[in-house]
Amino acid sequence: MSATQNFRIVAITAVPPATQGIQIVNGNLEVTFVGIPGEIYSIEATQNLNPIINWIPVATNLVADANGLFKYVDTQFRSFPMRFFRARTP
Fold first, then answer.
1. In b/e form, how buried is each residue of 44-69, taking b as 16+ CB within 10 angstroms?
2. Which of the residues 31, 32, 57, 85 could staple to 20 if both were Cys, CB 3.0 to 4.6 A apart?
3. Mapped to the 3 state alphabet, what secondary structure does 35-86 carry?
4. How do the domains of the chain map onto residue ranges?
5. Burial label, 5 (beta-carbon count in 10 A; 0-12, 13-18, 19+)
6. What is the pLDDT of residue 48?
């Protein structure tokens, strides 16, 4: 007896989130990112990019909207001379 099975493999290309825009709104820094619609992201920040980089979580569970957009509002950006952000999936 023999058996034959067919499989279909579907590859989903993971697109890393990217910065869409940065602006000051009502005295706060608003960073807009674009990723995959419905995906959950977190935002991390650091004060410099010299190795070893210490990324600190500043926002979690941000869900990208139907266009893939999600925002982080930094209400304390004036407290830092320089700050860098990155978005990632948890």
1. bbbeeeeeeeeeeeebeebebeeebe
2. 32
3. CCCCCEEEEEEECCCCCCCCCEEEEEEEECCCCCEEEEEECCHHHCCCCEEE
4. 18-88
5. exposed
6. 94
Q: Identify which of 6, 71, 60 has the alpha carbon closest to the alpha carbon of residue 32.
A: 71
- pLDDT tens track for 4-47: 888 788 666 677 899 999 999 999 999 999 999 999 999 999 99
The pair of structure tokens assigned to 62 is 């941000």
Cβ-based neighbour number of residue 33 at 10 Å: 21
pLDDT band at 1; cut points 50, 70, 90:
low
- Here the tokens at position 10 are 């579907």
Residues with Cβ within 8 Å of residue 36, at least 6 apart in sequence? 14, 15, 64, 68
Identity of the amino acid at 71:
K
